[in-house]
Design goal:
The structure holds 3 protein chains of 3 kinds. Chain A has a domain of 295 residues. Helices cover 68% and strands 0% of the residues of chain A. Chain A contains 19 helices and no strands. The radius of gyration of chain A is 24 Å and the shape is globular. Chain A starts with 9 loop residues before the first helix and ends in a 26-residue tail after the last helix. By secondary structure, chain B is of the alpha+beta class. Helix content of chain B is 22%, strand content 15%. In chain B, β2 and β3 form a beta hairpin. Chain C contains 2 helices and 8 strands, in the order αββββββββα. In chain C, β4 and β5 form a beta hairpin. About 3% of the residues of chain C have low confidence. The longest helix of chain C is centred in the C-terminal third of the chain and has 45 residues. The chains are: A mainly alpha, B alpha+beta, C alpha+beta. Chains A and B meet through α6 and α7 of A and β2, α3, α4 and β6 of B.
């Protein structure tokens, strides 16, 4: 047993911080997993009941035939935008402050995309016939588009996450700190013989470069087809050509929100204060505010055009939403879910505190959850025949399964941050390395980059660069 | 030819590679063949006609219904709940909140109300069929939208898509009379559909194919429901036969929510029951009743909305 | 004021009295007494059949302005009835004509009768037309817009392109793996060489 050397330089400290969560499990962590498992167990019990009795145990009925499950599906699909946005878009934009947070954003995407289809399964009356979607799938159906989109997006995001993970897996494999880690074989297997050679670097950079360009339209199409599940029907509140854009905007908004929350949690839990700085929260906060303005713009555009014409039964819908029984939901969403987060970021006094930015993100996500609920349940509650609007009240089965879904999402992230490092160590190391002089080809390529370089303030301390081999021999 | 390490030549296609390729090829062909089989099987089962063609020719029936609102008083004069809905419930063993044909009370421009019996509109551009992910609901060549509850996955996208709210979900195991067990399941009558699937009016395809009128048309005491064939251009309410095209044109027929472009096959002749002596100001309907015993073992009944 | 109204009423009565003989003159004019129906003896479904009814008086004069009802007796869904095909008014030659496009096959019994309560009653005329079954669907509705060249293949190409990139990325991983193996092997060899030297 060799004594742990005192942490001295940036590189060593980074490795220590990033790898220490992998090497031990604290009591708090175990407790969190246990609590999450309790929630999931409750969900399993609730689902057993639902499976035995049918969907009659839910609050859904013929008039409001979708409820919390579909709301949660849309919500998780929305959250899944985080990874693509932060890692792909910011990577394309060469925003260097993204480096410590890309990995987490990709976790969020993959975890959300694993949980989202579960809610479709929960919502199905005949879940054992899931295979019919593949055997008899009609390519004309919006739900089939969603199946295509979700599979493609999930697998694409997983590949993307994995590609950017390879050098870190190799670091884990080679690290002295993780010498006796039980998952060492896993690191070795998945590090695909990464030795950090020039050709490997070049190949990985090229693959990532092409992949991030492909993954962005895939992500946009995912949110588009999710909105089309609603927009392809003839129900007046859903019958909107701007639904796809609205969903993409909402997804960006809630995705950034979840990322801010996760960043704050991991910062505390894994002591990553050096890497997740106020500047990161501020930058993501600016994005949050910008997306909240976009969502506000969509709200105004949607309801002013609908409200001006009052086509069909829209007067009843708008009345219910703005002053009627749905008004508490709508105004909570509008004021505390859209306006307040933007204000919290816009006001310098609150912007300077990480707590307020996290609060803004939390409010944004609660608001967006309400917005999805309003879309699904509010849209269905508009009667299509002459009768009084129906009421939907979810039962304990639905609440339990919703809690279980959220718990499952948190659990996935909790597990994944224990298996692989939560920050992209290699990318941050590389960023600090001086540009190698002996590689003029790389230099040429760097100079050929289009003027996309956006630098929103580098979070790294301007320290003298450490030696290239970092004392790691 | 490539050389081995020891300098000897080896065939360009080694046995190992060949076996691998052959295996992949066989697998690929099997998968492709299976896929093709499924696709073609679907095409066959979904283009089948449910009714014999007209006469001895090849012309297919184009079922449609005309509901003469001038003759519909919501069964106020008979003093009962709407007979069309009740006959449908009894004939198809519908569980409690389902009314495949439901009489809605609409406001009239001059005050008062009229009754509109509303079955499935059997749209020719059916939103429900368009959105179904597994082709569990489809349009027959005769223009009837049917549901195969053996294939339905219960996603309820069709219910969200239907602008007439004419689709119903089996939220639980419905209470069924014992005689329902004697019927073999078929999409043309839907008796015996499992829980977790969608049901709706099927225009009594099993009866019309043998020349009988659907339950609703048979039961209407005022003969307000005509059932007809756009191809033979005839319709009947069980008492009279009319020429469908001129009957529609001469009486200013309309279709429900026509501007949606769903092209329904159910037509309405405007009116409020005046031909059977109803005043538009006689409001109210008697509620429909379901005769099934709610205590059937294992049955879980439900209401319209959760409260 | 009252006087004016009484005077007007009186005038009205006088006018009615004066008109009486005129209507009597109409009554005396020849009444429709005979109805003849001309129809083709055969046709097939979808043909345009011309039905003509000649209305004449007892003396054989053509009767203009008389409404004739055309009917066909039929059986549909086990209900038998006489179905009205249409109505037509006779012209100056006393001929009421309509075009009938049969949608049913068989021996159709088409009849013509006068509309309303005509006194004395005029016997209706009938004729049997043999209609053969037609091959084509008469009622057909075109649903959807077909854009030439656009179809599921487009979706397949887009999806295929994306999945190709996924597979390509996997292939790149294989290359990275090989590069790594290669460099490891090189290092081993150089180390071995070093040791030998």
């Amino acid at each position: 047993m060799e004594a742990v050397k005192p942490v001295v330089d940036f590189e060593d400290r980074l490795e220590e911080r990033a790898f220490s969560p992998l090497s031990h499990i604290s009591a708090k962590y175990a407790l969190l997993v246990a609590v999450l498992l309790v929630f999931i167990g409750l969900g399993v019990y609730a689902y057993q009941t639902q499976f035995r009795e049918g969907l009659v145990v839910t609050g859904m009925r013929d008039r409001i035939s979708w409820g919390l499950y579909v709301t949660m599906f849309v919500f998780f699909i929305g959250i899944s935008m985080a990874g693509t946005l932060i890692s792909a878009i910011l990577r394309i934009a060469h925003a260097e402050w993204r480096l410590p947070i890309t990995r987490m954003a990709e976790f969020v995407t993959v975890a959300a995309l694993v949980i989202a289809p579960v809610f479709i399964l929960l919502d199905m009356g005949q879940p054992t016939r899931l295979s019919n979607l593949f055997i008899f799938g009609r390519w004309q159906s919006p739900l089939t588009w969603d199946v295509f989109g979700l599979t493609t997006y999930l697998i694409g995001s997983a590949i993307y996450l994995y590609l950017a993970l390879i050098p870190d897996l190799a670091l884990c494999r080679d690290s002295k700190r993780l010498k006796s880690h039980p998952l060492k074989w896993l690191f070795k297997a998945f590090a695909v013989e990464w030795r950090g050679t020039h050709s490997q670097h070049h190949r990985l950079a090229r693959t990532l470069g092409i992949f991030m360009i492909v993954i962005i339209p895939v992500a946009v199409s995912m949110h588009t087809v999710t909105s089309w599940i609603f927009a392809m029907t003839l129900r007046e509140p859903w019958d909107s050509t701007m639904y796809a854009a609205y969903f993409v905007g909402g997804a960006l908004y809630s995705g950034v929100g979840v990322l801010i929350i996760l960043m704050a949690v991991l910062r505390k839990a894994f002591h990553l204060e050096e890497y997740f700085k106020l500047q990161h929260f501020k930058n993501l906060g600016y994005m949050l505010a910008a997306f909240s303005l976009i969502v506000m713009f969509f709200n105004v555009s949607e309801y002013v055009t609908e409200g001006f014409k009052l086509k069909g039964d829209m007067h009843l819908y708008l009345e219910r939403m703005f002053v009627g029984p749905l008004a508490p939901y709508y105004w909570t969403y509008a004021l505390s879910g859209m306006v307040l987060p933007a204000l919290l970021v816009a006001i310098p006094a609150t912007r300077r505190s990480i707590g307020f930015i996290v609060l803004a993100a939390l409010l944004a996500n609660i608001g967006m959850w309400i917005e999805r609920y309003l879309i699904v349940v509010g849209g269905l509650s508009l009667p299509l025949q002459p009768y009084h609007p129906a009421i939907y009240s979810p039962t304990w089965v639905e609440w339990s399964l919703m809690a279980a879904g959220i718990a499952g999402f948190i659990l996935l992230i909790t597990l994944i941050v224990k298996i692989v490092p939560a920050v992209a160590v290699w990318e941050m190391l590389e960023h600090r390395k001086p540009k190698p002089v002996e590689e003029p080809v790389e230099e040429l390529e760097q100079t050929r980059q289009p003027g996309l370089r956006v630098k929103l303030g580098s979070p790294f301390p301007e320290k003298p660069t450490p030696p290239v081999d970092g004392g790691r021999k | 030819m490539p050389e081995n390490n020891d300098g000897t030549t080896r065939p360009a296609l080694s046995r190992r590679t060949f076996l691998k390729l052959a295996g992949a090829g066989v697998l690929g062909l099997t998968v492709a063949g299976q896929g093709l089989r499924i696709l073609t099987a679907r095409a066959e089962s979904r283009t089948e006609a449910t009714t014999a063609p007209i006469g001895k020719g090849k012309r297919l029936r184009r079922w449609s219904a005309v509901i003469d609102l001038r003759r519909c008083d919501g069964c106020q004069s008979a003093g009962t709940a709407p007979q069309c809905a009740e006959a449908c419930i009894r004939g198809r063993f519908l569980p409690e909140p389902m009314q495949w044909i439901e009489v809605y009370e609409h406001e009239l421009p001059g005050g008062g109300t009229r009754f509109m019996p509303t079955p499935c509109m059997q749209c020719q551009n059916p939103p429900c069929v368009n959105v179904c992910p597994v082709a569990a609901t489809w349009s027959t060549p005769e223009g009837i939208v049917l549901i195969d509850q053996r294939r339905c996955i219960g996603c309820r996208l069709c219910m969200a898509a239907c602008p007439y709210e004419r689709r119903f979900f089996l939220w639980g195991d419905p209470p069924l009379p014992p005689e329902a067990a004697l019927v073999d399941y078929s999409p043309v009558h839907q008796i015996g559909a499992p829980k977790g699937t969608v049901m709706k009016c099927d225009f009594c395809t099993d009866m019309t194919s043998s020349g009988r009128l659907p339950y609703c048309a048979q039961a209407c005491p005022n003969n307000a429901i005509y059932f007809g064939d756009l191809e033979e251009d005839l319709a009947t309410n069980g008492r009279n036969v009319v020429m469908l095209s001129s009957f529609l044109s001469n009486n200013g027929a309309f279709r429900s929510k026509e501007d949606l472009g769903t092209k329904p096959r159910v037509y309405y002749i405007p009116g409020q029951g005046q031909d059977v002596g109803r005043s538009p100001f006689t409001k109210g309907l008697k509620p429909v009743e379901w005769p099934w015993d709610k205590t059937t073992e294992g049955a879980k009944t439900w209401k319209r909305s959760s409260r | 004021m009252k006087g004016t109204i009484y005077r007007m009423l009186l005038l009205l009565c006088l006018a009615l009295l004066a008109a009486w003989p005129v209507s009597a003159v109409f009554a005396d004019s020849p009444a429709p007494a005979k109805l003849d129906l001309t129809a083709p003896s055969s046709g097939s479904v979808g043909d345009r059949l011309s039905l003509k009814a000649l209305v004449s008086s007892a003396t054989g004069e053509p009767m203009p302005g008389v409404v004739v009802v055309f009917k066909v007796s039929t059986s549909f869904m086990n209900t038998e009835d006489s179905v009205e095909l249409g109505r037509a008014t006779t012209d100056k030659q006393g001929v009421a004509a309509m075009t009938y496009v049969p949608h049913s096959s068989g021996d159709l019994s088409i009849s013509a009768s006068l509309s309303g309560d005509v006194k004395p009653a005029v016997k209706s005329a009938s004729s049997v037309v043999k209609i053969l079954e037609g091959p084509q669907q008469y009622d057909s509705e075109q649903i959807g817009v077909s854009v030439p060249g656009l179809g599921p293949w487009f979706l397949a190409v887009v999806m295929g392109g994306i999945w190709f990139v996924f597979l390509w990325a996997m292939a790149q991983l294989r290359q990275i793996f090989r590069d790594g193996q290669h460099s490891a092997a090189q290092k081993r060899t150089s180390r071995l060489e070093n040791r030998h030297v």
